[in-house]
Amino acid sequence: DEDFNITSFSADDPECRRALDNRPPHRFSSITTSDCEILKVDKNRLDLAITWEQAGDYRVEESDDNDVDWMSALLESDVFAKVPPANIQRLFTAFKNEERALGDVVVAEGDPGNLFYVIEHGSALVSKRSENGVEQVARLGPGQFFGEEALIGETTRNATVTMETDGALMYLEKDEFKSLLEQPVMNRITEQDLDAMQADSTALVLLDVRLSGEFKHFHRENSINIPLNKLRQRCDNLDRSACYVVVDNAGPRAELGAYLLVKAGLQAYLLKSDSE
């Protein structure tokens, strides 16, 4: 410690059953005296996991390992990690369950969307229409979710999801999704907020998700253009140290663009128009 007092610990000591020096700022320096294995856990994710577990005790006690699996997988997603603890109990209450059979079409490409889904157990296939016919683009398992893009973008389903096995889904109604998930995880800022961020950050990117023709016709100064239909494929290649602000001149497309960035684990904000 700061007084140069030395304390030794080994793996079997009771003190090692808890996190060492688990208060910022750290009060001690630790040096290994032999080869060892150290467990590191992201504190924010641990706090969220504990909150989810406590909020959902009434479910977990009566369920099997599949329930733990889908909830654990949800917690590992960048979207659900941003859900405030205060919303978690309400989420567990709002989720409804439905059984699905092999071959069931859960959502169909082109149909209107009004539900958000999470796979509780079983698996599903995602397919899209293309010039070459229908192509399978993804396989979803427990804890993976779908259906949110149609709700955020106020548009139709952009893919078909078909059950690959018998299984069960958890789902939220549109209004519940909007209030419990979309609004809390979507970071909205004002022009004043943007001015302050621009003064403090050199890694700020103004992003316009309209079509290139719309962008060329007029656009905000210093903004770059990545059309929404290309953003999903480009998320993995974007600078993860940058902060992205989606300019709100594309209506629901801007909201969906900001969400896709958040879903990809990027720091993203939606600039609110003066009329909001």
Structure, explained:
The chain has 276 residues and is of the alpha/beta class. It has helices at 43-55, 57-60, 65-75, 85-94, 148-152, 174-185, 191-200, 212-217, 228-234, 252-263, and strands at 96-100, 105-107, 115-121, 124-130, 133-140, 145-146, 160-163, 167-173, 188-189, 204-208, 223-225, 243-246, 267-271. The chain has 2 domains: 46-183, Sandwich (Jelly Rolls), CATH 2.60.120; 186-271, Rhodanese-like domain (Oxidized Rhodanese, domain 1, 3-Layer(aba) Sandwich), CATH 3.40.250. It has 10 helices and 13 strands. The chain has a 5-stranded parallel β-sheet with strand order 9-13-12-10-11. The protein has a 4-stranded antiparallel β-sheet with strand order 1-8-3-6. A hairpin with a 2-residue loop joins strand 4 and strand 5 (133-140). The longest helix is centred in the N-terminal third of the chain and has 13 residues, at 43-55. The model is unreliable at 54-65 (pLDDT under 50).
Q: Which percent range fits the helix content?
A: 25-40%
Domain count: the total is 2
Query: What is the highest CATH level, the class of the largest domain?
Result: Mainly Beta
User: What is the CATH topology assignment of the largest domain?
Assistant: Jelly Rolls
State the CATH superfamily name of the largest domain.
Jelly Rolls
Strand content: 15-25%
List the total number of helices.
10
* Order of adjacent strands in the largest pleated sheet: 9-13-12-10-11
Q: Estimate the global geometry from the Cα principal axes.
A: globular
Report the strand count.
13
